[in-house]
Amino acid sequence: MKTDTKIPATAGTSLVIPRRGFLRNAGAVTLSAAAVAILAGSERAAAGTAASASDVTILNTALGAELEAIAAYQVGAESGLLKQPVLDLAVKFQGHHKEHADLLAATVGKLGGKPVEAKAKYNFPVEKLKNQSDVLAFAAGLEKGAVSAYLGAVPLFQNRDLAKAAASILGDEAMHWAVLRNALGQDPVPGAFVS
Amino acid sequence: MAIGLTRRLRRAGRIAVLLGAAGGAAALPPATGLADAGAGRAVYDRCLACHSEEHDRVGPRHCGLNGRPAGSLAGFDYSPAMKASGIVWDRRSLDAFIAAPVATVPGTTMTYDGIKDAGERAALIDYLLSIPPCN
C-alpha cells in the first residue's frame, strides 16, 4: 500500500497525504505553540550535553511508528468503510500523528540525527477490515500500542525536555484510544493506569 | 474479566518469582499455561504500535520466532546491534530482552523500558512462542 495518495475530499476535511511532499515540506510546517515549546526544549538539549545518541534513536523509533500510524489512518480513510462523523474523526487523528511526526523529525534534525522516512509500502491486515467497527478496532489497537510505546520510551530519555515531549504525545495517543473505544461501544477509560 | 486477568498474571508472577528464587539465575522462566486464555495476547496489545504477528512493521514480525536467530529476517532493516547480538530467540532470551531491551542489546532500536512484571513477561512469551510459523 502506498501512502502518497489522495483521498476524495469530504466536507470540511483535507485528507491529502502527499508522503514525499510531506517529507520535503517538513521544515516549513507550522507547528502549534505546544510543539514549538517542545522543540525549544530539544534546542536546549542540542545546545547542552543532556541529549544523547540514544535519545535520537528513541525519537527515530517513535517517528517510524508515527509515520506508520499516518499510513494506517490513510488505509482506514480510503477503505470506504468509515461514515461521518467517524471519517472526520479519523482525519483529525491522522492530522495529530502528522504533527507528532513533524515535531519528531524536526527534533531529530536539531539533535544532529537523520530522521527516518516513511516506508514505500506498509502491510496492514486490510483483508480483515470488513466494516467500520473493524477499522476502528484496528486503529484503537494501534493507539493503545502507541500509548504503551511512549510509556516505555519516556523513562529512557537522557534529556528531560524530550521525555516531557514524549509524555505530551502519549497523552494525545491515549485520548485517541479512549475516543475510539467509545466509538466502538466499549468503556472509553477501562482503568486508572495505562501499561 | 480484567480483574481475573490481573489476578492470574499476579499469580503467575508470584510463581515465576518463587521458581526463579528456587532455581537461581539460570532457571528458565516458566511457561504460565495461560496463552490459550488470552493473557499473553492481552499483554501483546502493548506491542502493536511497532509489531504484528504476520507482517514486518517498525519492528519485525513475530511469526516463527521460536528458535530464530535475532536479526535474521530477510528484508527487515535491523539495527547493527541486533544483528551482532548472537541471540537465538527462546524462552530464556526473550525473557531477558523483554525485561530490559536496551540493557540487553545496547544500540537496539527497540527503545522500550521493558516489561518488569515476571508474570506478564511469562504470559507474553507464552503467546509469542504460540504464534505459528510465517506463511
Structural features:
heterodimer; A: 195 residues; mainly alpha; Ferritin; 61% helix; 0% strand; disordered N terminus; B: 135 residues; Cytochrome Bc1 Complex, Chain D, domain 2; globular
Summarize the structure.
The complex is a heterodimer of chains A (195) and B (135). Chain A is mainly α and 195 residues long.
CA radius of gyration of chain B is 15 Å
CATH architecture descriptor name of chain B:
Orthogonal Bundle
User: CATH first level of chain A: which class?
Assistant: Mainly Alpha
The largest inter-chain interface, given as chain pair and residues per side, is:
A-B, 30 and 21 residues
Shape designation of chain B: globular
Order of helices and strands of chain A: HHHHHH
Distance between the termini of chain A: 31 Å
For the sheet with most strands of chain A, the description reads:
none
User: What about the largest sheet of chain B?
Assistant: none
Low-confidence stretches of chain B: 1-6, 8-26
CA-CA gap between termini of chain B: 33 Å
Shape, principal axes of CA atoms of chain A: globular
CATH level-four homologous superfamily name of chain B: Cytochrome c-like domain
Number of domains of chain B: 1
Can you identify the CATH superfamily of chain A?
A: Ferritin, core subunit, four-helix bundle
The sequence of SSEs of chain B as H and E is: HHHHHH
CATH topology of chain B: Cytochrome Bc1 Complex, Chain D, domain 2
What's the total count of β strands of chain B?
0
Estimate what percentage of residues of chain A fall within beta strands: under 5%
Whole-number mean pLDDT of chain A: 84
